[in-house]
Amino acid sequence: MDLRQLRYFLAVGEELSFARAAARLRMSQPPLSQRIQELERELGCLLLDRTIRPIRLTESGRILLDEAREILARVDLARERTRSAGRERIVTIGVVSEAVAGFLASLSTHIRAALLPRHPGVSLRVRVLGITSPAAGLHTGQSDIALTRLPFDTQGIATRPLGHEPLVAAVRSDDDLAERTEIDAGELRDHVWCQLPLDADPRWREYWLGNDNPSGRDHGHTAGPVVHSLAEYVQSVAWEGAVGVLPSSVARLYPAAGVTFVPLAEYPENRLVLAWPTTRADQVVLDVVEAIEAAVAAHGSAFFR
């Protein structure tokens, strides 16, 4: 098993589609499928369930997906630190989801224009750490700045608010609630809920179970599928009838047949923030923070609708 195989599997495991993964990797689909089959033969187990569409991860596949993310993140970090030694400065921005990454990319021209006069030798790099990691690499040193969402444990982390985004309920389209123009989160209590892994930040995990002020007690949810990515989340709604609350931007990024996104009534909007470690932020990092904040204020209002 080599790093290239892990990168191929990571793309397939996150996209749950060979076509989307191939496009992401900028390669054709047949050789990608062959590489995944070779990896399965080498490991002696199936990583994907191909009997249904879209494909799903097996339990072995879920385990390898988590391990692949960790291994590749550490390799990328080592490569960046080695290459940047004595050369240009690379500031890594960790993001919590593909939706947030897309938002940041839409502002890239404005951010670079603001940063270039002050720091012509600084390059920015974006790393998607995924919905199970709200700190987006700050705790592990994988990122210098995070563009993420609250709430999570911010001890040792400074945050700066960027805006508030409405939340929606994700329900299967044949559910009676899908016909509504808006619903209350309490109306989802008797459904099976998508949930994040148990080792995720506790406040973060509870928040996405519809508990804005988690108390640590049982809120009556029926345990549902454990999801590790937005693509997996949406597919769990479509195939297993699970429900959950998500930022409204997910509905734009992941429209899916069989899934309806319904606005939540009287539910606190989610807070998008910039975050950085208080102990290792130098002036370059702070200037990048300011450039992103200014770009969001001037050009990012559409994201929060």
TrEMBL record:
Entry keywords, A to Z: DNA-binding, Transcription, Transcription regulation
Disulfide bond found in the keyword field: no
SUPFAM superfamilies membership: Periplasmic binding protein-like II, Winged helix' DNA-binding domain
Keyword Transcription: yes
Highest taxon listed in the record's lineage: Bacteria
N-terminal signal peptide: none
HTH lysR-type domain location: 1-58
InterPro entries membership: LysR_HTH_N, LysR_subst-bd, WH-like_DNA-bd_sf, WH_DNA-bd_sf
Family named by the database record: Belongs to the LysR transcriptional regulatory family.
PANTHER family xref list: HCA OPERON TRANSCRIPTIONAL ACTIVATOR HCAR (PTHR30346:SF0), TRANSCRIPTIONAL DUAL REGULATOR HCAR-RELATED (PTHR30346)
Stated name of the protein: LysR substrate-binding domain-containing protein
Organism the protein comes from: Amycolatopsis rhabdoformis
